[in-house]
Amino acid sequence: MDAKPDMGPASESWSQFWRHEFCGPLVAAVVPRPGVSPQPKPSSYAAGPDMDLEAFADQALCWAETHAFIGAAIPFVYLEFAADQFATFLGADLVFPAAGEGGWPTHPLAEVPLESAEIRFERSGLWWQRVSAMAGRLMERWQGEVLVAAPTFVANLDALVALRGANQVLLDLMDRPEAVHRALGQIDQACAEVMAAFADLLQFDRLGSINRHGMYSTGRINLPQCDFSCLIGPAMFAEFARPYLRREMARQDGSEYHLDGPDALRHLEALCGMEELHVVQWVPGAARQGEDWSDLYRRIDRLGKGQILGGKPAALERWRRELTAGRLFWDLSAASCSEAEDAIARCRGG
What is the model's pTM? Predict the structure, then answer.
């Protein structure tokens, strides 16, 4: 990578991170290069599925050329048009409420008896054909200079909600639990097949893989989640979410869990009890963004899991000393290359 001349050492640092052998926090910073006019990173969400793909590819290269990728930072662009893009690989369609906003899936199984529903990876489907063609062209244009981050595989109960609707799934859990397990097994099989398809398409064996938060692995990585867990209690989570999340994580060489919303915190101990889980990414929700979540960071640390956090060098200095469980990934907000490099050097110096 011309944009990342130290890719070799960065890749090794990431491997040590996932093996729990990296000393101190793994810090990444993307800052404008001195003396150039920085170009913005393109967003597939903002551009939409009808975007000019060649212009998108050009902009990504200009962004990579005008920025420095310091520490663990690796140039990548996330290719996704909806939070539940994964459901489109299982037969859902997308609707776009407004230009420049992400899409939302239809619920193709809303009226289908769950006992007879067949959920599978639709390789001939519109959205797989569309996204895979785009990814293939970007791989051809970028030649590994910029990595393509696959869509997030929003599987398990979240995928069932995308296919069926949240209210219907809540009824299903009460009325037809065996059918829910059958559907979740099908979704898990499809998730494994989608991961394998993207591994081939994006050349994970040669380039490694990266998720939407910039977390990299020389093997396979994505971002497991179960936002639907906010609507169920511990017993249902243990039966209907935890086993399928463990399967997803076991297929990945690095697992970062997207923990979204205060109502999901009731499952934190159950999540952190999974040895397959390495890192927790906490999202408090729009209404509670400004709150101090320091006690939660300490709680996750006591449970032995890494975290993805971010902020300025002063915050990094504080939390690298307070959090001792390891696997802390810090997205550094730095004003310049020298400020980022100085912050990373202080971490390495103890």
Answer: 0.95
